[in-house]
Automatic annotation (TrEMBL):
The keyword Ribonucleoprotein does not apply. Residues 49-218 form the SGNH hydrolase-type esterase domain. The keyword Hydrolase applies. Pfam families: Lipase_GDSL_2. GO terms for molecular function: phosphatidylcholine lysophospholipase activity. Keywords: Hydrolase. It comes from Denitrificimonas caeni. It comes from the Bacteria. This is SGNH/GDSL hydrolase family protein.
Length: 240
């Protein structure tokens, strides 16, 4: 309710600031490079990475520097990693669900990085939860995914590209979606919410003040790896 009241009360300012941000913010491309591959030796681990511009590697030039490349490289020390990336700048969770039609094969783990565009689009709480449930259902039924790791929507109040009060409002909505995801994950065996901790220093942001830097992608991948390895029985993440 408070979010609705804030949006109504600040609507003229938020709309004006939003237009200015879209017009003036530096536009960075998605990272170049392969969006699938196999690397490493050991037990087989099949990973599907899904999401928006952060999953697509906006903020760095090559996929090797982005989440997909960093994650596969770090996991390759212990696993034979087969990975695929399905990501697109500007995509919402609803649009990601539709893009799943492009995926083929089976996977042990799905890593999800989405939500920023749902925040800016004003996706309603109930819709967000329903779409997460639909995503879980499709991933487990169609692609045999056993674990779905949902990365937290980043703290948008710290994005230097966003002025106040727009940054405060979007940060509040990001926290709300994270709270909803946390609640759903506690009720759903296959879902794990990951509160990514990257800090708020300028070196964690790319030149646009909005996307992760290479350092941030590296730290993000480390935390995903730690979450995977926290499983007491590695058979929980791999169909060896």
């Amino acid at each position: 309710m408070l979010d609705i009241l804030l949006r109504i009360g600040l609507a003229p300012v938020l709309l004006w600031q939003g237009r200015n941000v879209r017009r003036s913010t530096l536009r960075l491309p998605e990272a170049a490079g392969a969006r699938y591959g196999q690397v490493g030796r050991g037990p087989a681990l099949r990973i599907l990475l899904l999401g928006d511009s952060s999953a697509a590697g906006v903020g760095v030039s090559q996929q090797e520097q982005a989440l997909a490349g960093q994650l596969s490289k770090q996991l390759s020390q212990d696993y034979q990693v087969s990975w695929q990336l399905l990501a697109e700048s500007g995509i919402t969770l609803q649009q990601l669900l539709a893009k799943l039609d492009e995926v083929r094969g089976q996977y042990d783990v799905a890593v999800l990085a989405v939500g920023v565009n749902d925040v800016t689009a004003g996706t309603k709480d109930a819709v967000w939860v329903a779409q997460l449930q639909a995503l879980r259902a499709r991933l487990t039924a169609e692609f045999k995914v056993r674990n779905i790791l949902v990365s937290a929507v980043p703290p948008m109040q710290h994005f230097t590209a966003l002025p106040r009060p727009l940054s405060d409002y979007l940060g509040r909505r990001a926290r709300r979606l994270n709270a909803l995801t946390t609640r759903l994950a506690k009720q759903t065996a296959e879902l794990t919410f990951m509160p990514i901790e990257l800090g708020v220093s300028p070196q964690m942001l790319a030149a646009d003040g909005f996307h992760p830097s290479a350092i941030a992608y590296d730290l993000w991948a480390q935390q995903v790896v730690a979450q995977l390895k926290s499983c007491s029985d590695t058979s929980q993440i791999s169909n060896k």
